[in-house]
Structures are given as C-alpha cells and as structure tokens.
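testing teh design pipeline on a random one, pls ignore if ur not involved
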C-alpha cells in the first residue's frame, strides 16, 4: 500500500496536536494550586489581619493566593465566589458576610469541586462548608459577663451594642453575655442597638442613646471597633471616666486602651490560629485528606488590666 505525501503530512500534524494537548494537560496538572481568600470586609483591621495571615500561610505552604473584599455585601461576595470558581482557584478560605445569605455561595463552590473553609464567622449549614474554624464567642462572652457583673457590683444601668444582625457571632456573643447578666435583677439594660461592628456607627449610636439615658454605668460591645467608638462618644460627653466599656476581639487599640485604663476588658480572639488552620486544611485537602471536622472551636481569652501585659494585638506576646 502506498501513501501520498499529503497523508504523511496530515498524520504528522495529528500526532503533533495530540502531543501538544498532552503537554498542556501535564503543565496544567503541575501548576501550583491557588487559594482564594474571601473576607467580609477590609474596613476593619481585625479582618485585614485575618486575610494577611491566611495569605502568609498559603505562601509558606507553597500556594498562590488572592484576597477578595466583600465589603459586607453578600451580592459582592457572590461575585467573588463566581470569579474564584471560574478563574480556577482550588480552595476558598472564607469569612462570610451573612450566616444565611452566604450558604448558597458555599454550596455553589462545593458543587464545583472547590472546598470552602470558613474562618471566624459561621454559616447556617451543617454540611455546605468543608470545615468551619470559629472562635468560641459564646463561652468567651460568658467569661466577660462574669467580670462585668463583678465590676458593676451586680448593680447598674447598661447599654449593649450589637454587631451585624445577620452574623451568628453577634448573637452568640449577646447570648453568652445575657446567660450570666440576666440573672442579676440589679443590672438593667436601658438600650440594645446594632452598630454593625463599625467604630463610627457605634459612636453615633451611643451619642444618641446617651441623650435619653445620660446616667448609664457600662457599655457592652460585640467587638472592639464598637468599643472604641463607644469610648469616643463617652469621652465627648465627659463620661469616659464614669462609664465602663467592654469589648470583644483583641484589637491593638483596645489592648493599649486596657493598659491605659480606658477600656475595662475584651475577649481575645486568635485570628492567626483560624487563618493558619484554614490554609493548612486546604493544603491537606489538596493532598487527599477528606475527614475534616465540620466545626472547630477556637478558645477566647479575657484580657483585662491585671493580665494585659501578656497580650499584643490579636494574640499573646
């Protein structure tokens, strides 16, 4: 059987095409995996630190990463998830904007074969995320509440500033606090209002509350940004030396304010632990592990005047 030169040329082109496809497949397989780091907001130093620590751990483990800022907007968060999935990210380290609203984004990623590891904030699903690494906010606020009761000698009027109403941390902290404080009839809550975990909003909210309740004795805040905003409002009203402020997070300015006697106490979270754990779990997932705990609690420690020297921003010294 004789073959024309055209036949041989066509055969060579086909073989070259198959070789090229095989080479590209091998190259794509050998490419380093990527982690998307999607955080609720970068308008809060605490979440900036969380994102930076996650990115640093991903780099240490040999992976590329990129931080996406959801700006506390679930719609923008959805865009980030779609971008991460379509751009070929292999895992998502995730700080949700909303316990309910974020579930669909996690489910979509999981359906696309992209594991999701939640950091600090929880979603209301027991199986959508590969794992959720969360501060034990409830227990942390039980401890703060006991000190609150002791500091006020079981008597006085107080205000509670809540965080984002769609975030489970808001309610876990509030419930932990009230599980103790509500047992003391002498402690009366004169106002409870959301300030969205935001410093400026907390200042404005407390300024308004003080007009109707000028004789309060304490303010319990669901995070440190609100605690600093509350302190600013009290200072402007000439009440900062009379009204005791309690926060939650372990932010640098609050740690210093406790040292200076301006803030009474905070709950020290450990965002570096949560970020590094999430990145490490993603690394383990890439290497074949699948049996992750659905929820992993991270203990919170109370920081006050007599132990503050043991702590720095977002952790122990």
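output:
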């Amino acid at each position: 059987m004789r073959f024309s030169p055209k036949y041989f040329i066509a055969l060579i082109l086909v073989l070259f095409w198959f070789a090229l496809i095989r080479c590209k497949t091998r190259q794509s397989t050998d490419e380093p995996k990527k982690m998307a780091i999607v955080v609720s907001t970068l308008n809060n130093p605490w979440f900036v630190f969380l994102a930076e620590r996650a990115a640093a751990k991903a780099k240490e483990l040999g992976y590329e990463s990129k931080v996406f800022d959801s700006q506390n907007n679930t719609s923008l968060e959805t865009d980030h998830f779609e971008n991460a999935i379509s751009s070929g990210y292999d895992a998502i380290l995730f700080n949700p904007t909303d316990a309910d609203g974020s579930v669909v984004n996690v489910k979509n990623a999981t359906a696309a074969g992209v594991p999701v590891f939640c950091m600090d904030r929880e979603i209301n699903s027991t199986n959508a995320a590969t794992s959720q690494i969360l501060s034990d906010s409830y227990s942390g606020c039980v401890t703060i509440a006991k000190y609150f009761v002791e500091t006020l000698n079981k008597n006085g009027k107080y205000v509670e500033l809540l965080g984002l109403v769609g975030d489970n941390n808001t309610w876990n902290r509030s419930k932990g606090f009230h599980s103790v404080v509500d047992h003391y009839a002498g402690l009366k809550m004169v106002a409870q209002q959301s300030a969205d975990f935001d410093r400026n909003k907390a200042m404005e909210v407390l300024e308004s509350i003080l007009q109707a309740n000028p004789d309060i004795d304490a303010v319990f805040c669901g995070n440190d940004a609100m605690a600093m905003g509350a302190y600013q409002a009290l200072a402007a009203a000439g009440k900062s030396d009379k009204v005791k402020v309690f926060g939650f997070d372990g932010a640098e300015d609050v740690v210093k304010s406790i040292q200076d006697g301006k803030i009474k106490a905070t709950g020290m979270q450990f965002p570096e632990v949560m970020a590094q754990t999430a990145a490490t779990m993603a690394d383990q997932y890439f290497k074949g592990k699948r049996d992750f705990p659905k929820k992993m609690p991270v203990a919170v420690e109370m920081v006050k005047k007599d132990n503050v020297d043991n702590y720095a921003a977002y952790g122990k010294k």
